[in-house]
Design goal:
Blueprint lengths: L3 E4 L37 E4 L10 E6 L5 E5 L2 E5 L4 E4 L1 H4 L8 E4 L5 E4 L7 E4 L6 E3 H5 L15 E2 L5 E5 L4 E6 L3 E6 L6 E6 L5 E5 L3 E5 L5 E6 L6 E3 L7 E6 L3 E5 L4 E4 L7 E3 L11
Antiparallel strand pairs: 1-2, 3-4, 4-5, 5-6, 7-8, 8-9, 9-10, 11-12, 12-13, 13-14, 15-16, 16-17, 17-18, 19-20, 19-23, 20-21, 21-22
Length: 286
């Protein structure tokens, strides 16, 4: 196959763009759908690739902003889809600090936070209205110092417009909101920290040192901690559903609910799960 598949399936938000009432649904075949009761649906498939204006077939991040536009982070730049066409934003054309975009989140001011190639800890803030970009260091000055790391990272956006991500050496939880500014919380008891999910309660789930699963508050307090001496912890990514926050596997297979309570489930082969150490691998849409 040679084009990006964007599928319509239940459980994913539909949206209207530019008042034209065009419904566009992205189906990422991640999550643990096998544990959810099947529902009848009619799938509609459209194909998008470079022939339709997408800058590259390798899509690393997919994000829907507050206005309903879809944003795609690819190996060769940022792409906005308005329901009819793609608009490309790149280092050369738009002043981005990088073209290889791994993660996208949006803060309370509407700025898009873009994470660059793994191992470089580069972040750019992009204004989707003015299409102007500014580097993390330029925006925050001396406070914007990040450590390069081989630990895969993600940018997480909460319902109230907060941004969360982590840094290493020492491990730090970093958060930002326009009202409170940039905040660093050191967690020196950990060597590595990978934040993978923000909850509706504005807490963050993270994996520390490959063997500890943590729920953290923005000020670094540990609300829940589950240790797995055998390791590694393998996260199953998907949408929050039926009170379940996420699934993961380690010495057994577990589900964690929205209150942070954990329950072991019978052994299941979960192909959707990925070890946290392997989360830097790209996602290709065909």
């Amino acid at each position: 196959m040679s084009k990006a598949d964007i599928r319509s399936m239940p459980g994913f938000n539909r949206f209207n763009l530019v008042g034209k009432g065009l419904a566009f649904v992205i189906a990422l075949l991640i999550g643990f759908s096998s544990l959810v009761l099947a529902q009848p649906y009619t799938a509609s498939v459209k194909h998008y690739g470079p022939e339709q204006g997408l800058s590259h077939r390798e899509v690393n991040a997919i994000f829907q902003d507050k206005q309903g536009f879809m944003w795609f982070g690819t190996k060769l730049g940022l792409n906005r889809f308005d329901g009819q066409k793609f608009t490309q934003f790149t280092k050369e054309r738009s002043g981005l600090d990088f073209d290889d975009i791994q993660s996208i989140a949006q803060d309370a001011d509407g700025l898009l936070w873009l994470l660059g190639p793994y191992g470089q800890s580069n972040i750019t803030l992009f204004n989707p209205l003015t299409t102007k970009a500014v580097s993390f260091e330029e925006r925050f000055g001396k406070l914007g110092s990040l450590t390069s790391s081989d630990v895969p990272q993600r940018l997480l956006g909460s319902n109230n417009g907060s941004i969360f991500f982590t840094d290493q050496q020492p491990a730090r939880l970093i958060s930002y909101h326009p009202k409170t500014g940039l905040r660093y919380v050191a967690l020196p008891q950990f060597k590595k920290l990978f934040a993978f999910q923000v909850t509706a309660r504005n807490t963050v789930w993270a994996v520390a040192d490959d063997r500890l699963l943590l729920e953290l508050t923005p000020d670094g307090r540990i609300l829940h901690q589950f240790a797995h001496a055998q390791g590694p912890i393998t996260i199953c990514f998907g949408q929050r559903n039926a009170g379940i926050e996420f699934f993961y596997s380690a010495d057994a297979f577990y589900r964690v609910d929205e209150s942070g309570n954990r329950r072991a489930r019978p052994a299941i082969t979960a192909r959707c799960c990925r070890p946290t150490a392997a989360l830097s691998s790209r996602v290709r849409l065909w």
